[in-house]
Amino acid sequence: MKRKNILRFVSVLGIGSFVMLAAxxxxxxxxxxxNQTSNTTPADPTKELMDARDALTxxxxxxxxxxxxxxxxxxxxxxxxxxxxxxxxxxNNTASSIQDLKDAxxxxxxxxxxxxxxxxxxxxxxxxxxxxxxxxxxxxNTETSTLERLKDPQFSRIRDVxxxxxxxxxxxxxxxxxxxxxxxxxDPTKVSEANQKLKDATGxxxxxxxxxxxxxxxxFVKEVIDKAKLTGSDITGTQPGNYSFVGYSIDLNxxxxxxxxxxxxxxxxxxGVQPAVAGSESPADSTNSTTDLPTWNYAYRSVWINxxxxxxxxxEEDSKKLTNVSWIYSLAGKDAKxxxxxxxxxxxxxxxxxxxxxxxxDGDNVALQYKLNGGVETAINFGTxxxxxxxxxxxxxxxxxxxxxxxxxxxxxxxxKEVEGEPKDTxxxxxxxxxxxxxxxxxxxxxxxTPAVMNEAPTVDDIKLAKIPLTNLNFGQNTLEFSVPKNDQxxxxxxxxxxxxxxxxxxxxxxxxxxxxFGSKSSQQDNKTTVSVDLLKGYGLGASxxxxxxxxxxxxxxxxxxxESTKAATTYLVGFIGGGVGRNDAESVPTSPTSPHRQGxxxxxxxxxxxxxxxxxxxSGSYLNGDTTTDTTxxxxxxxxxxxxxxxxxxxxxxxxxxxxxSLGDWNTLGIFDTQTEKNIVKETTTSTVTTQSNPxxxxxxxxxxxxxxxxxxxQKGLNKIIITxxxxxxxxxxxxxxxxxxxxxxxxxxxxxxxxxxK
Length: 760
Hints:
This is FIVAR domain-containing protein. It comes from Mycoplasma tullyi. Keywords: Signal. By secondary structure, this protein is an alpha+beta fold. The chain folds into 4 domains: about 45-125, Substrate Binding Domain Of Dnak, Chain:A, Domain 2 (Up-down Bundle); about 125-200; about 300-320 and about 540-760, Galactose-binding domain-like (Jelly Rolls); about 335-510, no CATH class. It is built from 14 helices and 37 strands. Helix 2 (about 45-60) runs parallel beside helix 5 (about 100-125), helix 6 crosses helix 8 (about 155-175) and helix 6 packs parallel to helix 9 (about 190-200). The protein is elongated, with a radius of gyration of 45 Å. The model is unreliable at about 5-15, about 15-35, about 260-270, about 275-280, about 280-290, about 385-450, about 685-705 and about 755-760 (pLDDT under 50).
């Protein structure tokens, strides 16, 4: 009984205690005993020390990269270096506690951040200096690779200019932006100037300089005559609107009695190409120009077109896109001059200037001088023999024209080979006389002056090439001024006509200059040696204002056997060589002046061929001939035209080729003639009324197709002057680019075999 009472008491007590405990847990805050043992794993001091040391080690290991970034900022670099030294010392101390290591890491991180912000602040404050300094440093670092490109001796002057610039740059970049005491030791202006000079010398300009050197040494730099560079002239007229060639082999004021004009409606198919009409020069030559020509100081070759059967020139802009043949006609005027500016970076301070020249008209007294880079005026010597002479002061007497001195001796030419402007059996015109005034005492005096070349005396009927040595050229820009010496004793002195200018550092490039000047191009292919002449782009001389270069865009190629005709590419042909008719021009084309003008066989075209070697050359080329004739019965037949090409470069007076060119029946078909294969060449003898060359007024009947059986023209190695004309009063066909093919022994054997076969 007692035991039951006790259990009942404990049970009641237990329940009450639990109730009270639950109530207490809901109403009282808990108390944490700091000394109470945690149930987690206790920290390992050794590992924590190792982690702190590793973190500081990793940060200290960035020293080289970080400190290097501030090589140009000595004060910032020094402070950062000291911070790294402090961190390294803590790291090296084996007694450093965890806290020591953590404090050292935090301090070093702060120092690194401070260095970066300090540099940014410096850069912002000195932005221009820092920018130029960094650019200069980058360029200086290219010194080795840059100079390696210039190790060839021909680039020595470029190298000589660059080396001091690199040295000056290194002197500046070897200094810091910020000194140890925080000051700025560099002059921002000097850094900026050094940076700009080196940038200019090693950037795009360096490539241009290298290309300039190579062009001068391996070829030439061509300067096309630019009217805008001709200033101070008293003659301000524009070139005649009815001219095409603008360079002529006769006096500008020479003209016979008016020629026959093209009959109305004579053009075929609206082509504006006229058939041949009889006409001849009057034996009494007369000048029918109302003005003493020229009245213009500059002229360019004009390319013509035909619209609705009428001829007219293209615009100046369009013509110059096709050909850059141009001439300075006059330097008349007290302050008249032509200014040429060019860059030169060659290894030598000497280069050579070449340019074509000729007389404007018979009897001109010519003189020309140049001034280089504002120096003294130096006369360009004209004589009859290419030789070394001392430079003549600009005030000395000049070369007289062909009519001035009949007693002067004739001498052979050197630069441009001398040939006559008319066939051998023609009495030479006065313009062909190459007499010049005797040399003056000043011309013969020799001194220590820089030698100059004596250029040939200019003539009307020939294009010669002047050579001017240019010494003490600037590295970079050079300026040449050309003018006529002012001579009170002879105010009528004029400059010769001057064409496009060529600059080179090597006299060995003369052939390349000839090729470009005269549109000549030689090649060796399939055992064939050929040289072609571009009549559009090459300098040449007409003998009448009627001769022109015409663009054809709608021609068809001649049909090959069994094939359809194909459209020809745009073609440029020369028309109105020979004959005595006029062009059928548009109403907008001026009708004057009507000089210079010759007719018949005297209306020639002069071209120049730079032959790669001496020998006999076949002739081929494109042509246009649609001439037809109708007899009294109404029967229409094709009419041939004639071509004669000759030169007297050799002692062979029969050095000419005469042949008849077949008509293709219309004015829309472009044909090819070839003296080797006799393609489109009529071999039968044709009888026609012609004028004799020695007496234009005399008429005779002769066979003109077959007397000259030659298929080849003998050419000398080098420049050959070739004259193209017709026969009698007949026009030649329209003629395109010509190709001269060297005759070989194989060709000769083939001809013999063909002859034997024919005999059988």
